[in-house]
Design brief:
Helix content of chain A: 25-40%
Shape of chain A: globular
Number of domains of chain A: 2
CATH topology of the largest domain in chain B: Aldehyde Oxidoreductase, domain 4
Largest sheet of chain B: 7 strands, mixed
Strand content of chain A: 15-25%
Strand order of the largest sheet of chain B: 3-7-1-16-13-14-15
Shape of chain B: globular
Structural class of chain B: alpha+beta
Number of strands of chain B: 35
Number of strands of chain A: 5
Distance between the termini of chain B: 81 Å
Number of domains of chain B: 3
CATH superfamily of the largest domain in chain A: Beta-grasp domain
CATH architecture of the largest domain in chain B: 2-Layer Sandwich
Largest sheet of chain A: 5 strands, mixed
Oligomer: heterodimer
Strand content of chain B: 25-35%
Number of helices of chain A: 5
Strand order of the largest sheet of chain A: 2-1-5-3-4
Number of helices of chain B: 20
Chain lengths: 164, 806
């Protein structure tokens, strides 16, 4: 099958490559760019392990062709940390509050939460639960994930207030 | 001692040993997307394997045409049973003494069965080629009901063994029969039931479900033809057992096989067995000389690898009029699917189902289990439980509730009345187990006080009254379960898998500067072993947990062990870790005696050091001792500081707990709302309370899924009806309630640190609490028992049957 030229910005860096138009974005990220943080858990768009941020919205990268992402700005878990190299408040909070066990859903879950907290910087527990309902976790029972996201929201708002 | 000298308490805190809520060392890589799971592995020249699978539940293969597939550019090979036969690899041994087709030989026996293995340059080409392999089938009648499998005129499913009427577990009484397993005194149990004042009888079905870890199964096999070494990275919960099995079936010497379990994205029993994908990948790598990757997709995972349960349990429980249980009898029809691929210890074809007397002092009992073949996927794994323990727990906890209804007794009262008493431990159960320790009354009493059980029942009476007056359309249910598990398999004298004794191991090396590495025969799949095993060692040898590396999962470096499932890591490998630590400490004591110029009996251990009795100023810390082990010539002692322990547990451990669920059922919609769930666990000594709580949250969420929605069902012609996440219920954060956790501590008397294991308790105890709650909601309307899963449709049907949703 003939290949097409795709260009996009991934984690702030311009990237390009040749890919079959039918190649899924998740496979392009994992196999062509070696960004193996996002995972494949279901192939049917249910589990959210493949969640990445694309042009300011959460996207399940197993339900999107790489061709559709041509020209997009993509952020994966590998690009979530702060510009100075320190961990993002969510990454710290997931560890602090035991919001992960096997770690397989974690990249997608944190990437989703990263966008959720920009959509809603002070979510209630119910809003967090609804906001991450596209991401499945088989280990934690979500309770500590919710706690971690709440803690990160508090931390980020404290930092923001201090800056203002 | 001056003010700057840390006290023993301060030094102990610094170790982050037993009881510390230590943060996990695993998390840094996972939160940054730097985990290393099997699908992340990329080797030069690597090809991809993919399966052609049967669309039918039962069919004869008339022909397979590979030509069109082989003509696709990028396709390297298409393997079928005919290609594996010369290698004698078209069948492989299962862990249960049966054989399983690696690639279907003449017949397919379940939908999704592996028929051909396509090897191609990438996964897209492999998928294209899979569609082009033409298989001509002649469809045969399928058996999806285990009760019909044993009919006199039922077709023979397993033609490969139709003349072999002596199975791995004794005689087979029908071509579709696998084994009969019995425990207990049948005549005495039946006599006691026949003469009892009250008998409750019920058919309890625990539906077929699937562990469904978020990461599916897969491997990368790489044959190094120059060195003759086969390396397989894969989703293996028992890497050493896989190495031995691989050696036995390929005839590659065991030292030339290296099995590596990288990070594993959840297991829950799904990743204990050996699957055709592993064998085909290894064969393809041997043939092609390049690495082969095989990763199943979710539909393949749900339809072909490792289902759980499918137990059909006919029970009778007898009691006196005042509620004293006098006898228990159970017959199980166990649907094992097309091949017997359970991963039970050899002598236990129905696992430890004979723990089904539960937490109760029952004087006489009898159990028999018949395993049968059907046209369903093989498996029967222990899904987040010890072998068949969740089935046993569900059975007894439902039966006790049903008996309570019949006696018009409160479910808590009947449990209290029949508990094994604290002073009866160690307790010999009538079905053959020795329960190590327990204090059930204290645990249930604490649970009832915490939730205000009497208040809940009063609220329920008010709710029922309001319902009858038409003031509400919701019924309140209160579900109680009091489970006892049997985990930590197990003593080598009666527990083995394929002849391999179920001990486990730990090997420790202390480095000259006082840090350490410990390697174990287990493998974490999210349990946090690198965090908790270091805590056990920190308390044993006085080295801070942060300075101890834990390594698992590489058979070239780790000592032999039987792996992680059945809550055996803490009871067995955790014990090995403590025992190896004690060997380190024993040698350290000799070194300290030499350095301090005293007799070793004059020394005492104090947190992180040996000190002279009565003179704590004279001491040597573990760090000082470690350096001396490498730097001093000590008469009579070898240099270095290392130890290894292979721990054969003297008994299983018996964690227990009291769970309580409050559910509101909408009779018009069947919607169930879990308003409250309280879980009290007693897992003996608690190593890391944060991790325990996390394990309980996760297990409860799995039990919610099982009780309230999961089922892998088949239609009459063998189609799987729940084979993708469209149909198979995994709760999201929205359906999952908030969990309340609590604990009591009753240490195991035979475990070196008193720990019992906890990861599976919430699955074992949770399912019956949910189910009891739903049944309880309708109990006053005449419901005795309704089968799981309690999804909205079934609950609505129950309400309709009882005439409630007019």
């Amino acid at each position: 099958m003939s290949k097409m030229h795709v260009k996009m910005t991934v984690n702030g860096k311009p990237v390009e490559g040749l890919a079959e138009p039918r190649m899924l974005l998740i496979h392009f990220l994992r196999e062509e760019l070696d960004l193996t943080g996002p995972h494949i858990g279901c192939d049917t768009g249910h589990c959210g392990a493949c969640t990445v941020d694309l042009d300011g919205t959460s996207v399940k990268s197993c339900t999107m062709f790489v061709a559709q992402a041509n020209g997009a700005e993509v952020t994966t878990i590998e690009g979530i940390a702060n510009p100075d190299g320190t961990l993002h408040a969510l990454q710290e909070a997931f560890r602090e509050h035991h919001g992960l066990q096997c770690g397989f859903c974690t990249p997608g879950m944190i990437t989703r939460a990263y966008r959720l907290l920009q959509e809603n910087p002070a979510p209630s527990e119910a809003e967090i639960r609804m906001g991450i309902s596209g991401n499945l976790c088989r280990c934690t029972g979500y309770q500590n994930i919710v706690k971690a996201i709440q803690a990160a929201a508090d931390e980020l708002s404290t930092v923001k207030e201090a800056a203002e | 001692m001056n003010d700057q000298t840390p006290t023993a308490v301060e030094r102990a805190e610094k170790l982050q040993g037993l009881g510390s809520k230590r943060k996990r060392v695993e998390d840094a890589r996972f939160t940054q997307g730097k985990g290393n799971y099997v699908d992340d592995i990329k080797l030069p020249g690597m090809l991809f394997g993919d399966f052609v699978r049967s669309p039918y539940g039962h069919a004869r293969i008339k022909s397979i045409d590979k030509e069109a597939a082989l003509a696709v550019p990028g396709v390297v090979a298409v393997l079928t049973a005919e290609d594996l036969k010369p290698l004698n690899l078209h069948y492989m041994p299962t862990l249960a003494g049966d054989v399983q087709a690696v690639l279907a030989d003449e017949k397919v026996l379940f939908q999704g069965q592996e028929v051909a293995f396509v090897v191609a340059e990438n996964r897209y080409i492999a998928a294209d080629a899979v569609d082009l392999v033409e298989v001509d089938y002649e469809q045969l009648p399928a058996i999806n009901d285990p009760f019909k499998a044993m009919d006199a005129d039922a077709p023979c499913l397993r033609e490969d063994i139709k003349d072999k009427m002596e199975g791995a577990h004794g005689p087979r009484k029908h071509v579709n029969h696998i084994f009969t397993w019995t425990v207990g005194d049948k005549d005495a149990a039946h006599a006691a039931i026949d003469s009892a004042e009250v008998v409750a009888e019920e058919m309890i079905t625990y539906q077929r479900v699937h562990p469904c870890p978020l990461e599916t199964c897969g491997c990368v096999a790489s044959m190094d033809k120059i060195n003759g070494k086969l390396t397989i990275w894969g989703t293996f919960q028992a890497p050493h057992a896989v190495r031995t099995v691989a050696s036995l079936i390929t005839n590659i010497p065991e030292h030339n096989i290296r099995i590596i379990s990288p990070d594993i994205g959840g297991g829950f029993g799904n990743k204990v067995g050996v699957y055709p994908g592993y064998i085909c990948s290894a064969v393809a790598s041997i043939v092609t000389g390049v690495p082969i990757k095989w990763i199943e997709d979710r539909i393949e995972n749900l339809t072909a690898t490792a289902f759980a349960r499918d137990y059909h349990m006919k029970g009778r429980i007898a009691a006196t009029k005042d509620g004293r249980i006098t006898a228990l009898d159970c017959h199980v029809l166990a649907d094992h699917g097309a091949f017997d691929a359970c991963a039970d210890p050899t002598k236990f074809p129905a696992g430890f189902f004979n723990i089904c007397t539960g937490s109760y002092d029952i004087p006489v009992a009898h159990v028999s289990v018949d395993g049968v073949y059907t046209n369903k996927a093989p498996g029967g794994v222990a899904y987040r439980c010890s072998f068949r323990v969740t089935e046993a727990s569900y059975f007894i906890e439902r039966m006790v509730d049903i008996l309570a209804r019949k006696l018009d007794m409160d479910p808590a009262e009947i449990r209290m009345k029949n508990f094994i008493r604290k002073e009866q431990f160690p307790y010999q159960s009538v079905l053959g187990w020795e329960y190590d320790s327990g204090d059930y009354e204290t645990a249930l009493d604490k649970a009832m006080k915490t939730v205000d059980y009497a208040g809940l029942r009063a609220e329920q009476r008010a709710n029922r009254d309001a319902f009858d007056r038409g003031k509400t359309r919701k019924l309140m249910g209160v579900g109680l379960s009091f489970f006892t598990e049997i985990v930590g398999a197990g003593p080598v004298k009666n527990c083995d898998i394929l002849g391999l004794g179920m001990f486990d191991s730990c090997e420790i090396r202390i480095h000259p500067t006082g840090s350490a590495i410990a390697r174990l025969g287990t493998i974490s799949q999210g349990q946090g072993h690198a965090t908790t095993f270091a805590q056990i060692l920190a308390s044993e040898i006085g080295i801070p947990a942060d300075q101890i590396t834990i390594e698992e999962g590489d058979t070239d470096t780790a000592p032999y062990g039987l792996g992680t499932y059945g809550s055996r890591s803490t009871p067995v490998a955790g014990a090995a870790t403590a025992m190896a630590g004690r060997k380190i400490r024993a040698k350290a004591q000799m070194i300290a005696a030499y350095l301090l110029e005293v007799h070793e009996d004059d020394l005492e251990w104090d947190v992180d050091r040996f000190q002279v009795k009565g003179n704590p100023e004279a001491h040597k810390t573990m760090a000082e001792i470690a350096f001396a082990a490498y730097n001093q010539a000590i008469p009579g002692l070898e240099p270095g500081l290392e130890a290894v322990s292979y721990y054969d547990p003297p008994n299983m451990t018996y964690p227990f707990g009291a769970y309580l669920c409050v559910v509101d059922v909408d009779v018009d919609t069947g919607v169930t709302d879990v308003r409250r769930f309280y879980a009290l666990d007693d897992c003996g000594t608690r190593i890391n309370p944060m991790i325990i709580e996390g394990q309980v949250h996760g297990g409860l969420t799995e039990s919610l899924a099982i009780a309230m929605g999961q089922e892998i069902a088949y239609d009459e012609i063998g189609n799987v009806k729940g084979g993708s996440l469209l149909d198979f219920f995994l709760p999201t954060a929205v359906e999952t309630p908030a969990w309340e956790t609590d604990y009591t501590v009753t240490p195991s008397p035979h475990h070196p640190i008193g720990a019992k294991g906890v990861g599976e308790s919430p699955n074992v105890g949770g399912v019956s609490a949910f189910s009891n709650a739903v049944n309880d909601a309708f109990a006053h309307k005449g419901l005795t028992h309704t089968q799981m899963p309690h999804d909205h449709w079934r609950v609505w049907k129950t309400a309709e049957r009882l005439g409630l949703n007019g």
